[in-house]
Amino acid sequence: MYASTVPMDSSKLVLLLSFSYILLHQSSLTAAQPNFINYYCNNTGNYTTNSTYQRNLNSLLSSLASDTQIDYGFYNLSVGEFPDRVNAIALCRGDVAVDICRSCVNDSTHKILEVCPNKMGAFGVYALCMIRYSNRSIFGVVDEQPSFYRWNLQNVLDVTLFNQALQTLFARLRAKAASGNSLKKFATGNQSAGVETVYAIVQCTPDLSEGQCSSCLLDLFRMITNCCGGNVRGKIGAKLIRPSCNLRWETGPFFNGTLEILPSPPPPQISSPTSLPAPAQGRPWILINSLLHFDFDVLI
Ligand SMILES: *[C@@H]1O[C@H](CO)[C@@H](O)[C@H](O)[C@H]1NC(C)=O
Ligand SMILES: *[C@@H]1O[C@H](CO)[C@@H](O)[C@H](O)[C@H]1NC(C)=O
Ligand SMILES: *[C@@H]1O[C@H](CO)[C@@H](O)[C@H](O)[C@H]1NC(C)=O
Ligand SMILES: *[C@@H]1O[C@H](CO)[C@@H](O)[C@H](O)[C@H]1NC(C)=O
Ligand SMILES: *[C@@H]1O[C@H](CO)[C@@H](O)[C@H](O)[C@H]1NC(C)=O
Ligand SMILES: *[C@@H]1O[C@H](CO)[C@@H](O)[C@H](O)[C@H]1NC(C)=O
Ligand SMILES: *[C@@H]1O[C@H](CO)[C@@H](O)[C@H](O)[C@H]1NC(C)=O
Ligand SMILES: *[C@@H]1O[C@H](CO)[C@@H](O)[C@H](O)[C@H]1NC(C)=O
């Protein structure tokens, strides 16, 4: 995950290569799911193998994995009765096609058991979907922990201008996402910041009320300056992720299509005397790979 600049002697290299070969070879045999970008296992409670809780969890996860009815990217299920009741939410990024969403959710149901064996609660995050389950009720509840922060190391050209644009954009997207319905609370958009343009998405789990979504996103937005020693501020890309809401920005388009329906009249843009370069078009998903360059993860 982390780039290493430490020189390696050749025997170590051979070892590493054979190890990689074994890993690759094994994964082709076992159809392994991709790794989560981030995950959290709640160590407060452990269930025992063959317990009712485990049976409920397995049944719930396989319902999620095999569902073919839900086409809006939000899954909320409960199985069993107290004290063995399991509640789960899976959420796809709001711009993801239904087949990709289902396959992501399916992957997540397998991966979460693999990385958090015997845990009463867990939270796993992929680029395009996330999953969380718990023995406590999680529907309509704003969960602020755990928080994951990832950012690109590269700085924007003009921090002041960029942050003004971010602020304007997020105010708009937050209102738009929060006013979404009980199936989707998601918004995308862009805003010019001098010669750069910021593209962003925000999303809440749609079981939250408008007010809950709005305050979850506002809290998260404040973390841009409050978290991580200020290192997220002024970066060309970042992702802030909590179980109940998340946000991401980049200086190029990275989401699928233009789903943002602007309220009329459109809010005033930050004035920019220079003419803007046209945003990169046609291959928006290339930038997903930029996640690999996010070098710092902070779990708080
Ligand atoms: C969930 O499990 C934890 C750990 O076993 C326990 O302390 C807590 O009371 C449980 N909560 C509910 C709602 O069952
Ligand atoms: C649950 O298991 C983990 C190890 O997997 C352990 O560190 C933790 O203390 C256990 N929690 C409880 C409440 O027993
Ligand atoms: C769980 O159940 C399976 C099948 O009934 C059994 O083979 C296995 O030994 C059990 N494991 C534990 C830890 O009880
Ligand atoms: C879910 O993933 C598993 C393992 O990767 C795979 O065997 C299964 O066919 C998938 N199910 C669906 C409905 O895609
Ligand atoms: C983007 O949208 C198009 C059209 O709906 C769809 O075919 C494609 O699979 C989507 N890509 C992703 C990653 O969801
Ligand atoms: C871990 O589980 C306990 C018991 O259900 C719960 O009180 C706590 O909020 C959970 N922690 C997180 C970060 O979800
Ligand atoms: C799941 O979400 C839908 C839509 O928000 C809601 O109608 C339904 O009651 C929820 N189910 C549970 C078990 O909370
Ligand atoms: C950028 O925003 C403008 C208006 O706000 C919109 O027309 C355009 O489609 C957006 N571009 C992308 C890639 O979202």
Automatic annotation (TrEMBL):
It comes from Populus deltoides. Pfam families: Stress-antifung. The keyword Signal applies. Keywords: Repeat, Signal. Residues 1-32 form the signal peptide. PANTHER family: CYSTEINE-RICH RECEPTOR-LIKE PROTEIN KINASE 25 ISOFORM X1, CYSTEINE-RICH REPEAT SECRETORY PROTEIN. This is Gnk2-homologous domain-containing protein. Residues 35-138, 144-254 form the Gnk2-homologous domain.
